[in-house]
Amino acid sequence: MAEKGKYLVLVGAGALLGSAATVAIFKLLPRRGERKCTVVEAIELNGMLTDSQYVVTYITLMFIEYDMFACDLLERRRYQKFLEGVNHGMTGPDLLMDEIVTEQLTRNIQFFGFENQKKVVSSYVVVIGLGGVGSHAASMLLRSGVGKLLLVDFDQVSVSSLNRHAVATREDVGTPKALCLKKHFSTIFPECHVDAKVVLYDSSSEDEILSGHPDFVLDCIDNIDTKVSLLAACVRRGLKVLSATGAGARADPTRIRVADLRESTNDPLSRSVRHRLRKYHGIDGGIPVVFSLEKPKAKLLPFKGPSGEEENPSDYQIVPGFRVRIIPVLGTIPAIFGQIMASYVVTELAGLHVHMEPVVNFDMDHYNVLHQRLIEHEELQFGTAMEVQRDPCTYDILFTSYSVALLLDVAQHSYELQRRMLYALSVDKSHPVDVEEVIYIAKELWHCRSARDLSAKDVGRGMWRSVNELMLIRWDHMKPASVSNLILLKFTEADEHESRSLEDIKEQEPEFFARVTSVLKRAELDFGLRSE
């Protein structure tokens, strides 16, 4: 018993000596002017500690006046206590009831609004292919608050992939990409339910991967056969899918676009995918893809075997049909592809439908032609083109009471000038439809094709559209021409439109009426003509 008492005394003395040494070190260190730990926080800290920790910390706090040592310890203990209490079974909008989760997602909540962020947190997204593109897409989906992720890839992290992978380190080399991401994700957003499957997507694993009604599927696969199989399965199951085409051998981030698969250009992978989907599955578009307009800057490298001599790549395939030859990759480009995919998906999940820039190859001559046709049509149909062209004698100088009075005096013997001036005063001068507005209307609103083609399956490749049969006309004949009242139609369609009333169109073609109305409302919002 005496020996035990001596032992306890020695342990206590050692603890006191260690505390004294710690105090001495902190006294010698320069003060950083950081905030003091309050008495309330000190009491909270003491309540978190065990008896032995309490003794040492109490003595330390007495000497260093509750400084940052105690405050840092308090924050660590608070976070540890939080992690111990994390309910990993909590899913959906309930996650936003947690203060730390809400704080972590506060910028998203400010951007989308609380209710829309709840939609993101309640969502389930599948990411297939976890290389340079897929790892960045999955990482930002996680950081954006997606509540459930399924990560799928059969491959492992390699040293050469570290130039483009989102989170992998040298320590992860040789581990499955799916498990690598899951490990890192658990330290970033532990509340997200992350499943990882180290499997190859094919017909045998389709149900295992695509069941569970995911809100979105991200196709980040670089193998043509597997990509086609996945996209066809998503279309067959009615799942929303976003596909990435070739990110290798590119260097210009400003030429990356999101558009329908049928509009993707300059990309060998997307051409092959389009052809096979159409030939073998009868799918002719309707799938959004991320692609680059840039022509590849490099080609596949020749395959060399262990001897250093060029050999047949198929002799070394581990998985049949998968590429063995290497394509040069600038690591920043697949990362941007992945970021774009995540941005597209998160905004869709939140209900913020972003209108991506259409793929159109028109130049100023094309837009000038459309503008001139609009001017001529307005003159012919309505007797004036005042709303769609700037007239120096009526737009630039006449909108003061003095200039109006002066011009009326000069124009007292000119009926035509009086008519033009009075008409100019009656229309909206704040948004005249000049060439800049024509570019916005034709390109941004109608994608340089007829408003009636937007729901058609075969509208042609966006890079090769023509203005030969197109013109801008008023949607509502009773309202002046403006950015929110002009639609793009073919000549024959324009003639038919002007022979009908809006009530007739609304009754006989409700879908077309609703679609056009929605697009024109977007124009009003973009130009500040109305609030949401």
Automatic annotation (TrEMBL):
Alphabetical list of Gene3D superfamilies matching this protein: NAD(P)-binding Rossmann-like Domain
Entries under InterPro entries matching the protein: ThiF/MoeB/HesA, ThiF_NAD_FAD-bd, Ubiquitin-activating_enz
Subcellular location: Mitochondrion membrane; Mitochondrion outer membrane
TM region positions: 7-26
Gene Ontology MF, one: ATP binding
Primary localization: mitochondrion
A Gene Ontology cellular-component term: plastid
Membrane topology, as annotated: Multi-pass membrane protein
A GO BP annotation: cyclic threonylcarbamoyladenosine biosynthetic process
Domain (THIF-type NAD/FAD binding fold) ranges: 106-367
Sorted UniProt keywords: ATP-binding, Ligase, Membrane, Mitochondrion, Mitochondrion outer membrane, Nucleotide-binding, Transmembrane, Transmembrane helix
Superkingdom assignment: Eukaryota
Family statement drawn from the similarity comment of this UniProt entry: Belongs to the HesA/MoeB/ThiF family.
Its biological purpose: Catalyzes the ATP-dependent dehydration of threonylcarbamoyladenosine at position 37 (t(6)A37) to form cyclic t(6)A37 (ct(6)A37) in tRNAs that read codons beginning with adenine.
Name listed for the protein in its UniProt record: tRNA threonylcarbamoyladenosine dehydratase
Organism, as annotated: Phtheirospermum japonicum
